[in-house]
Specification:
By secondary structure, the chain is of the alpha+beta class. It has 15 helices and 9 strands.
């Protein structure tokens, strides 16, 4: 048989090792072993089954050349040893050797089984004592070393039987087989590691985004706490003398406000967000003085229980007071929430009246920028935050995908489904 056809045959078989690499990553026991964790019996059983299956496949798919059966069944033995250790490697080698001798090349007899066991033992020893040898490109040389141990075992037997000289003509076929097995093991290692690396990178990205979102939320909390609490306490102190009953209400509002800040989940119902915003506005109303701030709400019944990212409204109402009503003689802050098709719309309107009271300290826009980043990380382009100027104020509008924020965390039904149910 032409050597070129032999190389093509082996290359085709090596392509199927990609499937083996994917199986190794997707099956939890095998994945654990690849990651260097897990030592349960089921992990070794899975490694044995995969290795033995690959050995049988590699043996049956071989070709004859120069009176030698060129095959890659040793790959299965080495993979079993790599995933399960020396005992799994030897056990797999026993079964793989018996299968090879009795179903493929009976002429080898028990020496063929013994040579395969040597492969499993050497590979298992390397995995347990020198695991770094099976990493990266070093896998190629290691796989050649394991096969060399098998070749030495066979050479000793052939030398004892006086058949070694005749078998020397098989050296090109043995060299091709060694190259094929070493290439296959290297290819399997790289394939499995690439899949693992991509999966771990994806998980790390998700975790990083979640951590960033959590940190952004914490930043909003810390930003509200220092200066707002100082102003609220001063307002409360001034109100106690003038109107004790109202001071008690302010204490309740302040208590509700900080209880919500400290004890709410990552997501919250729209109704809770509105209550929190109203508590904030009640304190600001007292701070600004009688008649300067009016608060209105218009929340549709079908969106009250829809869940949104916590503290979505907080920066909007804060911005409305600081740069809108608070900078004028009086005004109205109106909170609206409604559903429009497949979108949830949450708006904060500020409408100012009277003269401007002077220059307002410019902010850095950190709160709105942080909120916009949180929404983008959570919903992508499906969520937006926009500021719409109008004649005497501004509308801060948040648009969220309705499907993503269903009642009590569940996914609400589509309009089409609701019509079908009706």
């Amino acid at each position: 048989m032409d050597i070129r056809l032999v190389v093509i045959e082996i290359a085709e078989k090596l392509g199927l090792l990609t499937t083996a690499a994917l199986v190794s990553v997707l099956v939890p026991p095998l994945r654990n072993r690849l990651l260097g964790v897990g030592g349960q019996p089921r992990d070794r059983v899975a490694a044995f089954l995969l290795g033995f299956s690959l050995s049988m496949w590699g043996a049956k798919m071989g070709v004859w050349w120069l009176e030698h059966h060129v095959n890659i069944h040793a790959i299965g033995v080495m993979i079993a040893a790599l995933l399960g250790g020396i005992r799994t490697g030897v056990l797999t080698a026993i079964f793989a050797g018996l299968f090879y001798v009795y179903r493929v090349e009976p002429s080898l007899g028990l020496v063929g089984v013994a040579a395969t066991i040597v492969e499993g033992a050497v590979a298992g020893w390397i995995v347990e004592k020198r695991p770094q040898w099976f990493s990266g490109w070093r896998t190629f040389a290691t796989a050649c070393l394991v096969q060399l141990a098998r070749a030495v075992c066979l050479a000793i037997y052939l030398g004892a039987t006086g058949d070694l000289a005749r078998r020397l003509e098989m050296l090109p076929a043995l060299a091709v087989q060694m190259f094929g097995v070493a290439s296959g093991m290297t290819f399997w290692i790289f394939s499995a590691r690439v899949v693992l690396a991509r999966e771990e990178a994806a998980i790390a990205l998700v975790e990083a985004r979640a951590a960033a979102d959590h940190l952004a939320l914490e930043a909003l909390r810390r930003r509200l706490e220092p200066h707002f609490l100082f102003n609220a306490l001063n307002t409360l102190r001034a109100t106690i003398r003038k109107d004790p009953a109202r001071a008690r209400d302010l204490v309740s509002d302040l208590s509700d406000l900080y209880r919500y800040l400290l004890n709410h989940p990552e997501d919250a119902p729209v109704s809770s967000e509105v209550d929190h915003a109203c508590a904030y506005l009640a304190i600001e109303k007292a701070r600004l003085g009688e008649g300067r701030l009016e608060v209105q709400t218009a929340i549709d019944d079908d969106v009250k229980h829809a869940r949104v990212p916590a503290l979505t409204l907080q920066p909007l109402v804060e911005n409305a007071v600081k740069h809108g009503v608070g900078a004028h003689e009086s005004g109205v802050v109106r909170i609206e929430a409604r559903r429009e098709g497949r979108a949830l719309i949450v708006e904060v309107h500020d409408e100012s009246e009277g003269e401007h009271l002077g220059k307002v300290e410019a902010g850095h826009g950190i709160a709105l920028k942080t909120l916009r980043e949180r929404l983008t990380k959570r919903f992508g382009e499906s969520a937006t935050l926009e500021l719409v100027p109008k004649e005497r104020g501004t509308i801060a509008r948040v648009t969220l995908p309705w499907q993503a924020v269903g009642p009590e965390g569940s996914e609400p039904e589509d309009d089409d489904q609701e019509m079908d149910a009706a």
